[in-house]
Amino acid sequence: MDSGTRNLLYAAILHSLAGAVTGSVFKIRTLLLLLVVVLVEAAILAVVDTRAAGLWALINLVAMQVGYFAGILGRRTLEQAGYSLPPVRIRWP
Fold this sequence. Notes:
about 90 residues
């Protein structure tokens, strides 16, 4: 495996971890902001290396969304197990 592919694989792993943290802490608006950042990264990659840009852009977007989903499931599991409290909902009269 060459170093370029290895670096792009590390980037995909970091995108999935960022998605998991985002899913466990923040709401969907933050995910949308991160997806815009990934699209900017894809545009920069397209300028640098056009052959790998499309595939790795798709991989990074999917990794971010799968990580977000895993973060949501992890947060829900912790809340149902009693280790964490669900978010407070303010009820107005």
